[in-house]
Amino acid sequence: MPQFAANLSLMYTELPFLDRFAAAAEDGFTAVEYLFPYAWDARTLRARLQAHGLQQVLFNAPPAGLGRAAMAAAWDQGERGTAALPGRQAEFRAGVLQALEDAEVLDCPRIHVLSGIVPPGVERESLKGLCVENLQWAAEQAGRAGRTLLIEPINLRDMPRYFLNRQDHAHELLDAVDSPHLKVQMDLYHCQIVEGDVATKLRRYLPTGRVAHIQVASVPERQEPDRGELHYSYLFELIDQLGWQGWIGCEYRPAAGTRAGLGWRAPWLPG
Ligand SMILES: O=C(O)C(=O)[C@H](O)CO
Ligand SMILES: [Mg+2]
């Protein structure tokens, strides 16, 4: 039976961030993910998780910045990671170490590392070596800390010039980095927009054991997975048949209220 985690950055936005934990738990979620913890003291977030019987299953390393305040502000300033960006290695490394520290407090096993926006005039291909080198260093740190780092192909309509867009490119990076501590975050919304053939890709990649997290949303609106051009009930059954034991993050923007839109989950609730 697929297990769903609420994404508190996109869901429950009717509520202030810290109140979203209680709302997700009231709706029967036992796990959450969200973009970033850096605007908060991680102990405050841990208290919310514990108070509501939730586990944190994923968050992102900082998109850029040196120091917690700069890391917390970087996303709104347009930063989308530094793993593949020349001249940003100090921020990359500081970000990974900060994320590992927060993961310890939050007892979170997975951290998504964003690779960045390809600078104007630069060829994507030319950044691969640097990205591999940075990810090798980061995967080693993650291994020591008992965490798994993830990379996620993201579509270019939502994130123009983002470095990593295709599933095969993510798996090529895994080949090059060659670490058990680096895996793929397979977001089916992005996968459908960039390359399609989603069921075939699930059949190809889930059995490899190299996918450590799945995320879902309708395409193209990025809303509940009961609408749009992807037939999610088929895909959820397939994911189940493929023996997936991991989490599926609900990374969607509810069409008309988070709770009102949760009907799609009914067939997948335990008991
Ligand atoms: O945008 C997504 O799909 C994500 O999962 C990232 O965490 C943020 O870009
Ligand atoms: Mg995603």
Automatic annotation (TrEMBL):
Keyword Cell wall biogenesis/degradation present in the record's keywords: the answer is no
Q: Where is the signal peptide?
A: none
UniProt keywords (A-Z) are: Isomerase
Could you tell me which residue ranges the Xylose isomerase-like TIM barrel domain spans? 21-264
Q: Please name the Pfam families in this protein's record.
A: AP_endonuc_2
What molecular function terms (GO) are annotated for this protein?
isomerase activity
Q: Which family does it belong to?
A: Belongs to the hyi family.
The record, for NCBIfam families, names:
OxoTetrIsom
The protein here is known as Hydroxypyruvate isomerase family protein
